[in-house]
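Something for you to look into today, if you have time. What I am after is a single protein written out in full by you. I want to see for myself how the chain folds. Could you add the entry underneath, on a fresh line?
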Amino acid sequence: MPGKRAKYQGLAVSPGLAVGKACVFGKILVVPRRKIKVSQVERELQRLTDAIAESKQELSQLKSVAESEVGIKDAEIFGTHLLFLDDPVFLAKIQKKLVENKINLEAAVEDVTSESIRMFSKIHDPHFRERIQDIRDVGMRLLENIMGFDRSLLLSTDEDVIIVSSELTPSQTINLKKNRIRGFVTEKGGPTSHAAILARSLGIPLVSGVHNLETRLKMGSLLIVDGFRGEILQNPTEEELSTFRKQLESLHIQEDKEKKIAKLPTRTKDGVRIKVLANIRSEDDVTAAIHANADGIGLYRTEMHFLNHAEFPSEDEQLIDYRRVVEKIAPSPVTIRTLDLGGDKFSGFYPDLRETNPYLGLRAIRVSLEHPELFKMQLRAILRASVFGNVKLLLPMISGVEQVIKTKRLIRKCARELKRENLAFNAKIPVGAMIEVPSASLVIDSILKYADFLSVGTNDLIQYTIAVDRGNEMVSDLYEPVHPAILKLLSRMAKAARRANKSISICGEMAGDTRYTALLLGMGYTELSMSSFFIPHLKSKIHSLTMTEAKQTAQRVLALEKIKEIKKYINNSW
């Protein structure tokens, strides 16, 4: 077999197994740099105008393709790129660089793009830092059109391929021949990157965090990608290939079995009914939830409707979005979470969210209560949507009982207004609290006096309890779901909900991870919500165990003191 065998370890972002030829996306453009004469300036400016027009046409087409393939909301990224091309400041900088420095257009575009990236890199605000990839993508598109680059060369092979790239942009991923792609390997990009979202939606394995991969993984070399373990094997031996093919065949057989099981009501071997629900961002995700036979929507992240708006969407605009989701999956329940802005999610109509430490600042329910008139618009829209199906209302990042009381007071005010206006709504809509902050878990009994149900967001609960930024590579190993403190909090909340005779669910990443299924069921969590992609596998897991076994697992794990011991017990048991 040509090439040297090598094995690399990365981060498992999207599960699965794949084999294919490496298709490397590197920095394929060598930008020419030269001085120009005054007489050539006008011609260079015309080239800029032509490149902008061509780029706009391409982006408009990409937006249409993306809307049909990945949904309207995910396609809005190309609308953002179109706005960049209409930005007079960005274009004026290119023109100024070209005229004053007397350099060719390619060099001017490259310089301005690089300067913009450096400027945004110095800003600590996550909202602005997220724009770096957009600037890079738009700048590259302009350069490619100026230089006449044939973008069809990005992926012209008819073989099965593994896409290898430092970082995949939205434009690249939407242009790929997805029927030939078997896996992704990237240097950058975590679970929320564009590549990760695409990989999960297509059921394709993705391994990220592989440093210097463009020099280590060679174009055309054979790669095995293990999205379960985060491993990449380059130029495997015949024996390794044979072993892999047997594993892949077994995986396909297992997936077929899981899809059949997913059609059945989810019960443990001893007959206990478990609700398996889906996390969604928009109507586009509901179809996947239905195909996975989800028992409903356990978390509807409404902020995704707001992130690309310069102005707060009106009540009627919000109602349209919520109603479509509710009607599409009715009569199954839909838990609509109110806006969770702040942290790493920002929008133009809340300029006061630019903070030094946004994760500990004005975020989620704090933002909403700080702007009651805007909050009322969303509450009214949710209340009106409640008559079209089975709707529950969820409040994010509750840290104390006062926030629940204030919000319910605001809901009652909205209800009185709607009644006066003769607008229909469900007056008995359940209102729940999302528990993501340690303080809320410690006063859970008080919160349960006012909340109709609870939903635990384990992602933030782990981050805030252990005081670790899960996006920081230097401390990411400390982000541990089975830390004894986390497990004790989870157990404590489940017991409190049982005493109050109210439902409690988990909607964080732990819910979809089958390593923790027995543990969570044993603690008393009989409602789990996750990405639709994970539902068949989780349902199969639930069907394979008894509640008695689950309770024994929880009892044993909660008695252990060390993370290493807990992991060993869970791995050996399940």
Observations:
- Residues 522 and 548 are 8 Å apart (CA to CA).
